[in-house]
Design a protein that fits this description.
alpha+beta; 3-stranded antiparallel β-sheet; 3 helices; rod-shaped
């Protein structure tokens, strides 16, 4: 009987040892990291074959009446006139060499007819002045109170 118990103990010990070996192997295998293959190298670009960037197109040509030439022609046609000016309210101011100023409202048809009969075709107005640049944004300092 003792021999039977001893054989059972040995057999049980073998089973426990085998179970522990399987458990240890599976844990070790589960912790093993799988290495990812390295990424492929980037393609080699030959610097000599890069085309230059496309040229920017020229700005569009806007045909405007040459106001300096039409102004000079107006003064030659009208020797009594010293100068001419325009207002923002669609009016023309004609300055005479005698010192007088004549104001014609171009929004009224009778003023347009009278200025054309008296002085002929008016010159083209000069281009508007460039707009002022935007001021830089103001930075406000925020003070924290303790």
């Amino acid at each position: 009987m003792r021999r039977c118990v001893l054989l059972e103990n040995q057999f049980m010990t073998k089973r426990i040892f085998l179970a522990l070996a399987l458990l240890t192997g599976s844990v070790a295998f589960a912790q093993k990291k799988v290495k990812q293959p390295p990424p492929p190298p980037p393609p080699v670009v030959d610097v000599k074959e890069i085309p230059p960037p496309p040229k920017t197109p020229p700005p569009p040509i806007i045909k405007r009446a040459n106001w300096k030439e039409s102004y000079s022609a107006f003064l030659k046609r009208n020797p009594r006139v010293k100068g001419i000016g325009w207002t923002k309210r669609n009016a023309v101011i004609i300055r005479l060499k005698s010192g007088k100023e004549e104001v014609y409202d171009l929004s009224k048809e009778e003023d347009v007819v009278s200025v054309r009969n008296k002085y002929g075709q008016l010159p083209a107005p000069p281009p508007p002045p460039p707009s002022a640049p935007f001021p830089p944004p103001r930075v406000q300092n925020k003070r924290t109170q303790s």
